[in-house]
Amino acid sequence: GRARFPRHSCKNCYIMGCEQRPGTGENFVMLGPLEVFSRQAVDTYMAGVGPRCRGELHWSSWVEAEFMSRCLDLLGVAGVDDAGLLSDTHCNGGEPPNCQDHSSSTYHGLWSTEQSIPAWFDCWGQATLI
């Protein structure tokens, strides 16, 4: 996962690490389990969040990642497609994360049951095998 980042040379960008509905066209998004911003993107956000984003966007029903990406778009920050950076049911066509793919940086699953702790450690163990 970390080896993927050097290929992104933009100074003012955020990473869209998920392709929702894979293979259906442009459906790249940033989702909450993995949010990656350049330092300049954060500076741009901090300067524009009050006066522009809160004032010009109809954001009250959005989740945080949607607000961030739409705000950054409004402020002229580039969204960079890097599908596969996040392995998540929303990015995998409804399938659970493939903890063995060794290509994603983040694996996010349905860890909300009583089996969540063993399931998380199982995924972590699969993802960190070399």
Structural notes for this entry:
It is a single chain. The protein has a 3-stranded mixed beta sheet. Strands 2-3 form a two-stranded antiparallel ribbon. It is built from 3 helices and 7 strands; from the N terminus they run ββββααβββα. It is elongated, with a radius of gyration of 16 Å. Helix content is 32%, strand content 15%. It starts with 12 loop residues before the first strand and ends with a helix. By secondary structure, the protein is of the alpha/beta class. Helix 1 packs across helix 2 (64-74). It has helices at 39-56, 64-74, 116-128; strands spanning 13-16, 18-19, 28-29, 36-37, 78-81, 86-88, 106-108.
Number of strands: 7
Number of helices: 3
Rg result: 16 Å
Q: In whole angstroms, how far apart are the ends? A: 13 Å
Q: Outline the biggest β-sheet.
A: 3 strands, mixed
Fraction of residues in β-strands? 15-25%
Contiguous uncertain segments of 5+ residues: none
Mean pLDDT: 82
Q: Largest beta sheet: what is the strand line-up?
A: 4-1-5
